[in-house]
Specification:
Blueprint lengths: L11 H10 L6 E4 L6 H8 L3 E5 L3 H12 L2 H16 L8 H9 L5 H16 L4 H17 L35 E3 L3 H4 L6 E4 L8 H4 L1 H8 L5 E2 L4 E2 L15 H11 L4 E7 L6 H9 L3 E10 L2 H5 L1 E2 L5 E3 L5 E10 L2 H18 L14 E3 L5
Helix pairs in contact: 1-2, 1-14, 3-7, 3-10, 4-7, 5-6, 6-7
This protein binds S-adenosylmethionine.
S-adenosylmethionine binds next to α2.
Length: 374
């Protein structure tokens, strides 16, 4: 799956444990801010009916492949289609290659030209929606493996990243058997979807996902957008406003989504680097029931490890720290269920961070596990 800011890659086990730990009667989940769709994928794999939602096109595409598509129906056609697409050579360099490889340098021209040719072939085939989403997911992930960025598409590296020399390789996404649903809505509207548990992982600071991943948005929409600046961002990035990226507006925005959620129980992720403090979140969620918090030290995204760059790709700074604390809030009208889920979540964290299994004994309190997760 793609490299992504705020991705819950290392916390999948604890998040699934929190959701499933609420009780055996939990059968469905709603992932309101689905991003890479990896949480929805893990919840579906655990046996739940999952609805995954994200307001950006590329993220809704990932959700359509990883959560909504049924492997029993689509795995075989996907294998055949991807084998055909993989055989397509680079074509003439068009607008995409110029934008992402000649003007900006996110991909090497030989890979950008292949991405462009394959994307054109996908567009020309008028595929059924699930198959198109699977092909686009495979293409985005292939491009991500050979990109030349420090993790986000805001600036590119001065010298090509080592991985960018590799040839583009389409792989079949890990589809799951069973039904699911994908939505592309504002979280406020998606919150009305019926589910037993809602999982909320909203943006938590000023960094906009549209600005950071504008190349994926363009790849998904294939709309030859007008672009601007050295990073060649889509022109609407200039005017795009998201309350979750505003220190002033995030509180009201999240409170509104929480109030609109129909699911009786919630699991919420938030970082200690975010605009809202743990106490504010506990107070907000308290309106929905008993709140338990499990927190864990977490390694920051790959860009933080590589360093901070200016638009020309020169290293201009070092990140202040390489770890932050990820909090998982578990909310239920029934105290015993919130506590049981917190205990399961904590035990899963203990398994994840070797040697911390004894932490599971602290159920009933708000607990913090101070171990680096790798
Ligand atoms: C922290 S990321 C989610 C990461 C995800 N859990 C994962 O593991 O990949 C937050 C996501 O919220 C989405 N988002 C931001 N504002 C939104 C809104 N108002 N409605 C729906 N989705 C939104 C962003 O596009 C982004 O993908």
């Amino acid at each position: 799956m793609i490299k992504y800011l705020g991705s819950k890659r290392v916390l999948l086990g604890p998040i699934v444990a929190a959701v499933r730990g609420l009780g055996p009667d939990v059968r469905s989940a709603l992932d309101l801010f689905s991003g890479t769709a990896r949480v929805g994928h893990a919840l579906k794999k655990s046996g739940l009916f999952v609805t995954a939602n994200d307001h950006l096109t590329y993220a809704a595409t990932l959700a359509a492949a990883y959560v909504a598509a049924d492997a029993r129906v689509w795995a075989a056609p996907a294998r055949a289609l991807l084998a055909e697409l993989a055989a397509i050579p680079a074509g003439p360099e068009g607008w995409f290659t110029r934008q992402v490889a000649r003007e900006a340098r996110y991909l090497q021209p030989h890979n950008a030209a292949r991405v462009e040719a394959i994307r054109e072939a996908i567009a020309a085939r008028a595929l059924p929606a699930p198959l198109e989403a699977i092909a686009l997911t495979s293409l985005m992930e292939a491009a991500d493996r050979v990109d030349s960025t420090a993790g986000v598409q805001m600036a590119y590296l001065k010298s090509w990243a080592a991985r960018s020399h590799n040839a583009l390789e389409l792989r079949v996404p890990a589809l799951l058997a069973g039904e699911g649903a994908a939505l592309q809505l504002d979280a406020r509207d998606a919150a009305a979807t019926e589910a037993d548990v809602a999982y909320l992982d909203p943006p938590y600071n000023q960094h906009s996902y549209l600005g950071n991943y504008h190349v994926w948005e363009t790849l998904a929409r294939w709309d030859a957008p007008e672009t601007y600046g050295v990073a060649n961002k889509r022109v609407e990035c200039k005017t795009y406003k998201n309350a979750f990226n505003s220190r002033v507006r995030i509180g009201a925005a999240l409170a509104e989504v929480i109030a609109r959620v129909r699911a009786p129980e919630l699991v919420v992720s938030f970082s200690d680097e975010g605009f809202l403090a743990r106490e504010e979140l506990e107070a907000m969620l308290g309106a929905r029931g008993h709140v338990r918090v499990v927190a864990a030290r977490y390694e920051r995204y790959v860009g933080a490890k590589i360093g901070i760059y200016d638009p020309k790709g020169n290293k201009v700074g070092r990140p202040s720290h390489l770890e932050n604390t990820e909090m998982i809030f578990i909310v239920s009208p029934e105290r015993a269920r919130a506590e049981a889920a917190a205990a399961r979540c904590l035990a899963a964290l203990g398994e994840r961070a070797a040697g911390a299994a004894s932490a599971a004994g602290t159920a009933g309190t708000n607990v913090q596990l101070e171990l680096p997760l790798r």
